[in-house]
């Protein structure tokens, strides 16, 4: 016998008690250890050893000290006749366990045995072990699969485990016992048809079902884990394929455990997901804390209220209550991999500025100016390489208010926050072609009290909302607008100011007091422009359409209409050629007498003048000879640079930086005033783009808009009521005119948005165009309108004219070309008189009251609603209402065939201008009725007013 097998047999735990049932005593089925094949000396005819009685070993059940109950279910037992081929009769095993020489091995701790049901026809389990060992030790013939024969199978299922079943078919010969052995690399396997197979496994293997799991020491284990303590593995249990009841019972008993296991697996799955989520959350929080900590370390606090991270170049400015009011990214063109350094001592300024340098790319200076409630921070970028263009971008956040400034843009949006355009040179131009209109200012203001002002020497380009919600400032030279390189490399220089008081911020940023140097006569002109209209003489596309008779007849119509008399504005056609600065005697032979008559009737006469001198004018030759004109760049000063403007197809431009040119022009204008008793002039300066492309003045201009500024300042003593272009606020009584407006409903909206924008950026006195529009075009212009001499538009539609007239009633000044009497019937004429009365009683008193405030603080006369209450979200979103000062709110109709609208009133008590009722503020008025002959306006009442 194999010593290993013998040692294993001795270590096994006894499985059968000594009191076996009596029905197993007469069984002639040999036990596995009844006779040792090696000890048998006798052999049969086939050479096999013969078992001798009385030579049996100690039973396996006795050695294992375990009692195995074997239930034999035999309905037809066969009597044993002592023949080897006859069937055996089941009987109980003899009680040989009491004769054991050695004490039984104890069971392991906490081990609970599975009860095992033995098949019928087996006398004792020892024969199974002996039979298996016999086949292992002997040289066996190849196993040939047996033929299937009908057989009867008795199945016994243990009630405790519910899974161990051993089935033995009854045969007339010695029964074939099938025992499943787990597949391993033991010597019990043989090579059969190219596959390794256990000798004890047959086709009946399909009937074997695994046992359910057991629990040992609170640990779930399969029955196969107990092979070292059992006679046969639970996995080697044999199930009868013929016993349907046994199979069903087995499945029913295993079903609850399957449910419990599935629930347990689902619970484990949820726990795993929860653990994974918590793991990633912890990683995220750790990373967030790490980044935030390092950002906080790298973000330095400069001048108390400014936070700047030099690595990320993110700037944040805080208000007095530590609230962020503006944030942006500085130096956007600098790569993030470039590291900042502190400037060398030679590059630092002595004014307390912080200096940071990116080696070979750019240098940044930051400084602070504290004026009690005002805090201004200066930002100055100096480029250190030709390819670098300093660029700073600031966020346009809705919760941080609306941004305004710069001037009117091509899209006619009243707020920069709603606009969208790529980088464009910041210069005055024609809105049909260029990005900005005739009135510009390097000033951007937020509705919550933040403002940015850019230095005039910066070659400024502006972009809004191109890719992200931000507006950007860039310093870059080009070939026209900023062709005069004021510095070797471009510099971006501006300041940011914050305060909680919008009025004080305007006073600080826009303009100092406008009273400086103001004369009593100048104030009289301002009052005159507010109270009386400007009457623009009608004209066609050529100068022949304007003559002395036209002016006289026009004044007659004004007197017959019964409206207040005012200023008669005569365009540049009063001279034969642009730049003559003398009256055309052919068309105006007795103009001096006509003007005397108009003066006696109460009119004031205004001539339009320009800095352009046509090449057809006699003054052009004189100006070239005296070198009074702007000359071509990189050429002699005697070669004038030419351009075109309106009716002048070829013209030179006076060099206003030349003192000789200023003296020459003033002399001609003073002579004109003395001879014709002209009251004042209107300066038609064109725009920055109307200068010659290769212009060069005696003194270098910072930008093209500097020309209009110098021209206005040089002629202040001559006296004028308005200018067509401005980059700074002209000295009163000059008003800034709106650009030419098309005669259409879209043009009506453009008038309102333009006046609002110009007021916000610091132009308190605005002169809108003529009622009904300045020209009429039914198609989009592809060229600048200023290149053409466009005549006045035809008589507009009556509804458009009426709505236009209603809006102009509440403007700082009114200008007419078409008269109300030109319409048939008395409807428009009577309406004009009613509106003139409303202006006299309700509008002019408010304008005169706000005039002093505008002169002192730079606040506009016409304001958006958010200036009344910047913290009201509704006021920020409204663009079709405005206020005069803080006392009057106007809600005009700007669409055709509309007689009702939505009206919003800020906080306070307001008196309805149509029906005289009182209305509470901070609320909307829905479907407010506005008839064709009415305009909605509301006057603010004292705070203690009760309904």
Automatic annotation (TrEMBL):
<dbReference type="InterPro" id="IPR000322">
    <property type="entry name" value="Glyco_hydro_31_TIM"/>
</dbReference>
<keyword id="KW-1133">Transmembrane helix</keyword>
<feature type="region of interest" description="Disordered">
    <location>
        <begin position="137"/>
        <end position="157"/>
    </location>
</feature>
<feature type="region of interest" description="Disordered">
    <location>
        <begin position="1"/>
        <end position="118"/>
    </location>
</feature>
<keyword id="KW-0812">Transmembrane</keyword>
<feature type="domain" description="Glycoside hydrolase family 31 TIM barrel">
    <location>
        <begin position="548"/>
        <end position="695"/>
    </location>
</feature>
<keyword id="KW-0378">Hydrolase</keyword>
<dbReference type="InterPro" id="IPR048395">
    <property type="entry name" value="Glyco_hydro_31_C"/>
</dbReference>
<dbReference type="InterPro" id="IPR013780">
    <property type="entry name" value="Glyco_hydro_b"/>
</dbReference>
<dbReference type="Pfam" id="PF21365">
    <property type="entry name" value="Glyco_hydro_31_3rd"/>
</dbReference>
<comment type="similarity">
    <text>Belongs to the glycosyl hydrolase 31 family.</text>
</comment>
<dbReference type="GO" id="GO:0016798">
    <property type="term" value="F:hydrolase activity, acting on glycosyl bonds"/>
</dbReference>
<dbReference type="Pfam" id="PF01055">
    <property type="entry name" value="Glyco_hydro_31_2nd"/>
</dbReference>
<protein>
    <submittedName>
        <fullName>Myogenesis-regulating glycosidase isoform X1</fullName>
    </submittedName>
</protein>
<feature type="domain" description="Glycosyl hydrolase family 31 C-terminal">
    <location>
        <begin position="858"/>
        <end position="940"/>
    </location>
</feature>
<feature type="compositionally biased region" description="Polar residues">
    <location>
        <begin position="56"/>
        <end position="79"/>
    </location>
</feature>
<keyword id="KW-0732">Signal</keyword>
<dbReference type="InterPro" id="IPR050985">
    <property type="entry name" value="Alpha-glycosidase_related"/>
</dbReference>
<dbReference type="InterPro" id="IPR017853">
    <property type="entry name" value="GH"/>
</dbReference>
<keyword id="KW-0472">Membrane</keyword>
<feature type="transmembrane region" description="Helical">
    <location>
        <begin position="271"/>
        <end position="293"/>
    </location>
</feature>
<feature type="compositionally biased region" description="Polar residues">
    <location>
        <begin position="86"/>
        <end position="100"/>
    </location>
</feature>
<keyword id="KW-0326">Glycosidase</keyword>
């Amino acid at each position: 016998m194999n010593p290993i097998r013998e040692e294993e047999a001795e270590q096994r735990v006894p499985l059968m008690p000594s009191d076996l049932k009596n029905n197993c005593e007469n069984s002639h089925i040999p036990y596995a250890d009844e006779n040792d094949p090696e000890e048998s000396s006798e052999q049969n005819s086939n050479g096999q050893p013969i078992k001798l009685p009385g030579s049996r070993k100690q039973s396996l059940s006795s050695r294992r000290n375990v009692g195995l109950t074997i239930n034999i279910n035999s309905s037809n037992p066969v009597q044993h006749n002592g023949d080897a081929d006859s069937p055996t009769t089941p009987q109980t095993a003899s009680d040989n366990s009491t004769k054991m020489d050695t004490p039984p091995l104890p069971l392991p701790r906490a081990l609970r045995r599975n009860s095992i049901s033995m098949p019928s026809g087996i006398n004792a389990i020892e024969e199974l072990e002996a039979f298996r060992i016999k086949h292992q030790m002997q040289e066996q013939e190849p196993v040939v699969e047996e033929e299937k024969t009908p057989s009867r199978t008795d199945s016994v299922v243990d009630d405790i485990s519910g899974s161990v079943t051993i089935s033995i078919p009854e045969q007339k010969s010695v029964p074939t016992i099938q025992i499943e052995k787990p597949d391993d690399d033991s010597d019990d396997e043989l090579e059969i048809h190219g596959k390794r197979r256990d000798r004890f496994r047959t086709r009946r293997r399909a009937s074997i079902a695994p046992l359910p799991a057991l629990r040992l020491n609170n640990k779930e284990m399969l029955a196969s884990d107990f092979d070292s303590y059992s006679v046969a593995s639970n996995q080697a249990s044999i199930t009868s394929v013929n016993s349907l009841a046994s199979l069903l019972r087995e499945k029913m008993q295993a079903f609850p455990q399957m449910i419990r296991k599935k629930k347990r697996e689902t619970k484990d799955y949820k726990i795993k997901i929860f653990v994974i989520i918590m793991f990633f959350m912890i990683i995220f929080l750790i990373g967030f804390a790490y980044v935030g900590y390092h950002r906080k370390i790298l973000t330095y606090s400069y001048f108390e209220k400014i936070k700047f991270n030099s690595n990320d170049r993110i700037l944040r400015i805080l208000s007095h209550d530590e609230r962020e009011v503006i944030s942006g990214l500085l130096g956007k063109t600098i790569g993030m991999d470039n590291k900042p350094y502190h400037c060398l001592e030679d590059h630092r300024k002595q004014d307390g500025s912080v200096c940071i340098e990116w080696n070979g790319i750019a240098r940044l200076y930051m400084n602070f100016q504290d004026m009690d409630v005002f805090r201004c921070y200066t930002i100055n970028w100096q480029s250190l390489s030709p390819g670098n263009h300093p660029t700073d971008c600031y966020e346009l956040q809705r919760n941080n208010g609306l941004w305004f400034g710069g001037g009117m843009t091509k899209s006619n949006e009243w707020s920069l926050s709603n606009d969208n355009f790529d980088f464009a040179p910041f210069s005055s131009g024609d809105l049909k072609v260029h990005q900005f209109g005739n009135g510009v200012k390097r000033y951007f203001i937020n509705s919550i009290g933040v403002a940015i002002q850019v230095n005039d020497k910066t070659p400024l380009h502006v972009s809004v909302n191109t890719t992200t919600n931000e507006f950007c400032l860039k310093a870059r030279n080009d070939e026209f607008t900023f062709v005069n390189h004021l510095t070797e490399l471009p510099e971006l220089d501006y300041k940011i100011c914050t305060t909680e008081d919008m009025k004080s911020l305007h006073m600080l940023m826009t303009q100092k007091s406008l009273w400086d140097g103001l004369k009593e006569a100048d104030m009289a002109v301002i009052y005159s422009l507010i109270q009386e209209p400007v009457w623009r003489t009608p004209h066609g596309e050529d100068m022949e359409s304007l003559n002395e008779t036209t002016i006289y007849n026009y004044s007659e119509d004004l007197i017959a209409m019964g409206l207040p008399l005012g200023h008669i504005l005569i365009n540049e056609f009063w001279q034969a050629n642009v730049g003559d600065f003398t009256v055309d005697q052919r068309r105006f032979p007795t103009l001096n007498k006509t003007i005397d008559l108009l003066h006696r009737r109460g009119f004031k006469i205004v001539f339009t003048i320009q800095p352009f001198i046509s090449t057809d004018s006699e003054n052009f030759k004189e100006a070239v000879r005296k070198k009074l004109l702007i000359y071509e760049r990189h050429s002699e000063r005697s070669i004038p640079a030419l351009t075109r403007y309106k009716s002048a197809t070829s013209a030179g431009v006076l060099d206003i930086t030349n003192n000789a040119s200023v003296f020459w022009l003033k002399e001609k204008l003073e002579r004109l005033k003395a001879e014709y008793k002209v009251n004042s002039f209107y300066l038609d300066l064109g725009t920055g783009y109307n200068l010659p492309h290769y212009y060069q003045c005696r003194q270098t201009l910072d930008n093209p808009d500097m020309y209009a500024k110098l021209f206005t300042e040089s002629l202040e003593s001559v006296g004028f009521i308005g200018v067509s272009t401005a980059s700074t606020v002209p000295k009163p009584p000059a008003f800034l005119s709106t650009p030419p407006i098309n005669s259409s409903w879209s043009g009506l909206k453009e008038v309102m948005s333009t006046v609002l924008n110009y007021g916000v950026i610091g132009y308190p006195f605005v002169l809108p165009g003529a009622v009904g529009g300045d020209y009429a075009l039914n198609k989009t212009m592809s060229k600048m309108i200023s290149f053409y001499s466009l005549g006045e538009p035809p008589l507009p539609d009556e509804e458009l004219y009426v709505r236009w007239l209603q809006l102009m009633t509440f403007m700082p000044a009114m200008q007419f070309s078409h008269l109300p009497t030109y319409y048939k019937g008395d409807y428009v004429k009577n309406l004009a008189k009613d509106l003139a009365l409303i202006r006299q009683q309700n509008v002019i008193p408010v304008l005169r009251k706000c005039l002093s405030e505008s002169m002192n603080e730079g606040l506009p006369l016409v304001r958006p609603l958010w200036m009344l209450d910047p913290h009201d979200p509704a006021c920020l979103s409204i663009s079709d209402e405005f206020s005069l000062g803080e006392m009057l709110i106007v809600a005009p109709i700007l669409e055709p065939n509309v007689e009702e609208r939505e009206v919003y009133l800020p906080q306070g008590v307001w008196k309805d201008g149509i029906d005289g009722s009182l209305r509470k503020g901070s609320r909307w008025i829905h479907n407010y009725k506005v008839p064709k002959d009415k305009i909605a306006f509301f006057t603010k009442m004292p705070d203690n007013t009760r309904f």
